[in-house]
Design goal:
alpha/beta, Rossmann fold, 8-stranded mixed β-sheet
Length: 279
């Protein structure tokens, strides 16, 4: 399956790459760790009939620039600049879907600009590792990724795949993740780990003022449903939806079910501009 070509926008001197498909109300997709926008191929194809689907490459990933040495800003601020650069503000403010690590970028956006999204969809999400996991697990994961940055990529991918999928995952989904992960940049991942590896966004959750969907796979071992339940309790207007039998990468393992949930959510929560919020 082909994906749209990369485009780019300048955010304070940083080139941020993205892929875009379709027309209609805008939906911005934020990928997880070791990934880039190619990972969203089923959403770029499957939701473009109704929405303008925009999948960014997080700085340090894919076609985006690495964060500069000594970067003191935040990914939420970069995302806010990205949305402004694409004109996704005001009546065309987008629905923002953050997956796993991408969910923490979405939460950082809301921390800085509470009204930036029309709604949030947080998939396989955390309130940051430190906000959702026991301290010993946070340090285990932090140390694991730090060590992986010194290893050949061929050793890294097999350790991750069993934590991302169930045994029933389609082979083509596993192949896609393996190919995308194989292209990760250690320098980029190191910056992201330092920025977000010990983040705790629990204080942000009660301040969220936009409708929020929490979307989890019932068999997710990295961000289990109990994490979503805790976030639902903390976020006003939050709803929790479970995709049966799916693991951490629900959007690849069960793309039809995932896309259906997203489609229904946006239809039910079109934002203040309604159908006029198109780009």
């Amino acid at each position: 399956m082909d994906v749209p070509d990369l485009q780019g926008v300048d955010v304070d001197g940083l080139r941020v790459a993205y892929r875009r498909a379709g027309s209609g109300p805008p939906l911005v997709l934020l990928h997880g760790a070791y990934e880039d926008s190619r990972i969203w191929q089923y959403q770029l194809a499957g939701l473009a009939d109704e929405f303008t689907v925009i999948a960014w490459d997080t700085p340090g990933c894919g076609g985006s620039d690495d964060l500069p040495d000594g970067f003191t800003g935040s990914l939420g601020a970069v995302l806010a600049g990205f949305l402004t650069g694409l004109g996704l503000t005001g009546a065309t403010r987008p629905h923002v879907l953050g997956l796993s690590f991408g969910s923490t970028v979405a939460l950082d956006l809301v921390r800085l600009a509470p009204g930036a999204p029309a709604s949030l969809i947080l998939a396989s999400a955390y309130a940051g590792w430190a906000g959702s996991l026991p301290p010993e697990e946070v340090e285990r994961r932090y140390s694991q990724v730090l060590a992986e940055l010194e290893k050949p990529v061929a050793e890294v991918i097999p350790a991750w795949l069993p934590t991302l999928f169930t045994e029933h995952a389609p082979p083509e989904a596993i192949d896609l993740v393996s190919r995308v992960m194989a292209d990760f940049r250690p320098t980029g991942m190191r910056s992201l780990l330092e920025l977000a590896g010990r983040a705790d966004y629990r204080p942000v959750l009660p301040t969220i003022s936009v409708p929020t969907l929490l979307l989890y796979g019932s068999k997710d071992v990295r961000s289990p449903v109990v994490v979503g339940e805790a976030m639902r309790e903390a976020i006003p207007q939050a709803q929790l939806a479970i995709i049966p039998g799916a693991g951490h990468l629900t959007f690849l393992e069960e793309p039809d079910a995932f896309n259906t949930r997203v489609r229904r959510w946006i239809r039910a929560h079109p934002g203040p501009a309604g159908a006029a919020g198109q780009v």
